[in-house]
């Protein structure tokens, strides 16, 4: 069948060509012209169909993109930023003063971290045996190499050893290479992509964070007293006139705005600052993470804002702090000191307002900071490498009533309110080994902080807040590392909410005056 059809087509084609050759020249020209016209007609039709189909596809693509992640509003505003490296993506904010991070769907099965986060192995450093040492321990470790450069550029130790107030060594960094001095302030590590920072930060907070992270360092000092570990303080380019200084005595330590450099192992200071602001407590000093070119260790160091009002009698005299034993502290909670009326002189009350203890207890429980209310580690099972065991403080738990509280600090001009310093939090504490002694005697907790915990928005707010500090974000492993830290705090907040319900603790508005 197929063969006969092929033969027929061949016969027809030969007959047509034979007739075409026999026809006259004019007739052959007319046939060729007709074939060309028909061919052009079909070509034009095909081109028009192709263009029409392309227009429909373009419109369809536009409509599909307009329904995507970055929706275009009426004014045609586009999203500000998308962080492809950290996994955090930004949509168009519904409010102009918040940086929003779009969150993935909450895990159906939350990550269970036994012991929360395994602590990093680090070399043991010989600690000072002074029990009431008020400086952060283990600061000197990685700073020793940078301090060596400072010591090589100062006068001999004998020239300042006889000072009655403090011993300090200073280095004008302008003597170093100009390029090295400018490296730290070339690009800001505080990332704020909307018009304003998140609402839990004040304008002064943002200003201080930018100074600590970006200011060009003019002078570096190592301040020490006796055998207490040194403080490394840098002075930025923003200066304050001595005539405007309330504490003119401090010009010898910090003539302008300064920051205190801590060891990399104290990075919890930065997380503590953000948690404090998210919960609305506002009791910590601003802290950021920063790398310093003159330290040559390549690590990010927490830098805390210097506040001279914490030392009204001079650095040698120490912080403006309150001395209380555990028994006196529990008695002040029962008496509700300074809640409504001034207590009697013989009541044994300190100057701290009653609400301040509740704020402190909530904050310390979430971060498991025990060096204020429980420096002897009586409320949990400490490890052999913990400070309280190495210094022999844990043995004092046999007589708990006479154990003194530590690091209860206030500003010299404001004895009613606490300032949370030396916030050495622990993220590696097992959930069955939490320190509930921190909550003992507490009958009320701040409503604003508890409402954040109950709203289930703690994770979202902490992500938005911590994302601002790029150096800290990257030092913790990006979003994945930050999520693990927040997992720990979320789990502890659930334990705290259960504790509140089980013990009938009141949640009230606290405006301590």
Automatic annotation (TrEMBL):
Molecular functions per Gene Ontology = kinase activity
Regions that span the bilayer: 29-48
Q: Where in the cell is it found?
A: Endomembrane system; Golgi apparatus
- Where is it found, in Gene Ontology cellular component terms? Golgi apparatus
Q: What's in the keyword line of the UniProt record?
A: Golgi apparatus, Kinase, Membrane, Transferase, Transmembrane, Transmembrane helix
Cited Pfam families: FAM198
Question: Which superkingdom does the taxonomy of this entry point to?
Answer: Eukaryota
**Is Kinase set as a keyword in this record?**
yes
Which InterPro entries does the record cross-reference, listed alphabetically?
A: FAM198
Can you tell me which family this protein belongs to?
Answer: Belongs to the GASK family.
Q: What PANTHER family does the database record attribute to this sequence?
A: GOLGI-ASSOCIATED KINASE 1B (PTHR15905:SF1), GOLGI-ASSOCIATED KINASE 1B-RELATED (PTHR15905)
Q: What is this protein called?
A: Golgi-associated kinase 1B isoform X1
Source organism (scientific name)? Parambassis ranga
Name of encoding gene = gask1b
């Amino acid at each position: 069948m197929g063969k006969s059809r092929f033969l027929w087509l061949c016969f027809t084609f030969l007959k047509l060509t034979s007739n075409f050759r026999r026809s006259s020249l004019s007739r052959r020209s007319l046939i060729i012209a007709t074939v060309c016209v028909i061919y052009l007609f079909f070509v034009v039709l095909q081109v028009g169909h192709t263009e029409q189909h392309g227009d429909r596809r373009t419109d369809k693509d536009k409509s599909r993109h307009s329904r995507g992640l970055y929706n275009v509003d009426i004014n045609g505003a586009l999203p500000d930023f998308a962080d492809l490296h950290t996994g955090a993506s930004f949509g168009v904010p519904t409010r102009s003063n918040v940086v929003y991070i779009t969150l993935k769907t909450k895990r159906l099965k939350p990550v269970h971290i036994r012991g929360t986060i395994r602590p990093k192995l680090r070399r043991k450093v010989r600690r000072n045996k002074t029990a009431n040492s008020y400086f952060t321990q283990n600061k000197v470790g990685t700073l020793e190499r940078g301090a060596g450069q400072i010591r090589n550029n100062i006068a001999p130790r004998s020239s300042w050893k006889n000072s009655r107030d403090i011993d300090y060594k200073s280095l004008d960094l302008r003597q170093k290479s100009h390029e090295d001095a400018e490296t730290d302030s070339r690009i800001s590590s505080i990332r704020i992509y909307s018009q304003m920072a998140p609402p839990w930060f004040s304008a002064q907070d943002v200003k201080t964070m930018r100074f600590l992270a970006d200011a060009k360092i003019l002078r570096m000092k190592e301040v020490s007293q006796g055998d207490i570990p040194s403080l490394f303080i840098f002075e930025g380019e923003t200066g304050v006139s001595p005539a405007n200084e309330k504490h003119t005595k401090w010009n010898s330590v910090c003539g302008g705005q300064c920051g205190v450099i801590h060891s990399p192992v104290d990075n919890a200071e930065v997380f503590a600052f953000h948690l404090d602001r998210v919960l609305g407590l506002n009791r910590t000093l601003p802290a950021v993470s920063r790398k310093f070119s003159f330290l040559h260790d390549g690590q990010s160091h927490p830098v805390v804002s210097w506040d001279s009002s914490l030392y009204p009698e001079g650095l040698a005299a120490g912080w403006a702090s309150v001395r209380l034993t555990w028994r006196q502290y529990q008695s002040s909670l029962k008496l509700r000191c300074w809640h409504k009326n001034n207590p009697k002189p013989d009541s044994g009350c300190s100057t701290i307002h009653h609400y301040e203890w509740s704020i402190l207890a909530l904050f310390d429980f979430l971060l498991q900071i025990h060096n204020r209310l429980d420096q002897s580690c009586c409320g949990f099972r400490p490890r052999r490498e913990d400070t309280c065991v190495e210094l022999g403080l844990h043995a004092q738990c046999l007589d708990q009533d006479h154990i003194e509280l530590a690091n209860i600090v206030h500003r010299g001009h404001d004895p009613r309110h606490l300032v949370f310093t030396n916030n050495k939090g622990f993220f590696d504490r097992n959930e069955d080994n939490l320190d509930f002694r921190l909550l003992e005697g507490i009958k009320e907790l701040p409503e604003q902080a508890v409402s954040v915990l109950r709203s289930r928005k703690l994770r979202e707010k902490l992500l938005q807040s911590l994302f601002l500090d790029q150096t800290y974000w990257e030092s913790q492993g990006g979003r994945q590392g930050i999520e693990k830290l927040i997992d720990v705090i979320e789990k502890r907040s659930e334990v705290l909410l259960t504790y509140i319900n089980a013990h009938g603790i009141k949640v009230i508005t606290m405006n301590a005056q």
